[in-house]
Amino acid sequence: MTDQFNRPLAGFEAMLELPYGFTARAPEPNEVEAARAIKWLENSRPKRHNFWPALTLAFVAQAEILLAKLSEQSHPNAFTSIKRRETSAARAVDQLTWVVGETEIPVRRFYNFAAEVIMVQMRRHHPSSPGHATSKWEMYKPFIESVIAASPGGRLAVAQWVWKHGVLDRQMTVSTSHRERQPRPFYEMLKDLETGSGTTGGAVFQSLVYGYLYADSPTLTVISQRVNTGSRRAGVIGDVSGFLGEHVVLAAEAKDKHLTKADEADLMTFITESSAFPDLDAVVFARSFDSYIQDVLCEAEVRCFTRNEMIHTVSLWDVPKQENAVRSVRFFLGQIQKNPSLVERVDEFIKDLYEEPV
């Protein structure tokens, strides 16, 4: 990401409205007028003008367009020999606008392009203030005159100096160097955590479903019970339930297997119980579904959610949300399932995840 915000001037020719091939010229920093312009920037530019990088790049781009209209590579004494727009509707013009025949070349548009590149593309601190900045053009007359009088390679050298000292050397508005990419722990668990649970078959997968719904439904009270505890006996619907106050609005079954027609009878209790609640979202989580059981569940208005769909969704979650899901998985295994060995499995998985290079 750091390289993305440290690109060379060559990457922005079009966006700055510099002519094609501008940055392919041979730079001439020691050419007389270019050296004069750079010296002015170093020693004489208004020190309180924080907008100087965009403004000076704008003057370079404006000079290129002006000289192209004049069919010249350079032009001395611009302010005494090239026409400028000085009034508009009986008002003084507050920006430098060159006039060649019927064509007017105002500096404002070039300033807008330069400020956009610096602030948005390069993520550097820089004021916008186009009206204020371009109204100060008269304070830059020595620089402008030297830029227009410079050779094509000289103007490139000036633009490169501005890019180096006025853009690349400026503080960035985003930090790209102090935070390494963090592991996405719940995403990795869904992909790679072993879900076999021995005598408590399905406990790990049910904990993943519990963690998923807990993190993804923060406005609900999400509850569950130990694996192999009947929902009627527990007074809930499904393996995991979500309540809005005293009302159940979400119910989920967790099946750590590929579901087929052979599982229809096993799912009928969940289908029947959930159908009694019109405001209930019923979901079956499983590794996968065959087309028959999918049609059965769809007909009953029960959603099917595969493990791959969980993985895809969680890949979009931010890290704190994923960490919240992991804590919920540990809570389920430790406090609901009460199985320390499964908590230890999760802990070892997370430990290995954070020890591996990301």
Walk me through this protein's architecture.
By secondary structure, the protein is α/β, with parallel strands linked by helices. The protein has 15 helices and nine strands. The protein has helices at residues 32-43, 52-70, 78-81, 108-121, 130-134, 141-149, 152-168, 185-192, 203-216, 231-234, 264-275, 291-299, 307-314, 319-336, 340-355; strands spanning 87-88, 91-92, 97-100, 103-106, 221-224, 240-244, 247-259, 281-289, 302-306. The model has no long low-confidence stretch (mean pLDDT 92).
Please count the helical segments.
15
Strand order of the largest sheet: 5-6-7-8-9
- Rg: 33 Å
Helical percentage: 40-55%
Summary keywords:
358 residues, alpha/beta, 5-stranded mixed beta sheet
Helix and strand topology:
Layout: H1 32-43, H2 52-70, H3 78-81, E1 87-88, E2 91-92, E3 97-100, E4 103-106, H4 108-121, H5 130-134, H6 141-149, H7 152-168, H8 185-192, H9 203-216, E5 221-224, H10 231-234, E6 240-244, E7 247-259, H11 264-275, E8 281-289, H12 291-299, E9 302-306, H13 307-314, H14 319-336, H15 340-355
Parallel strand pairs: 7-8, 8-9
Antiparallel strand pairs: 1-2, 3-4, 5-6, 6-7
Helix pairs in contact: 1-6, 1-7, 2-4, 2-6, 2-7, 8-13, 8-14, 9-14, 14-15
What's a quick, concise take on this entry?
The chain has 358 residues and is α/β, with parallel strands linked by helices. 47% of the residues lie in helices and 13% in strands.
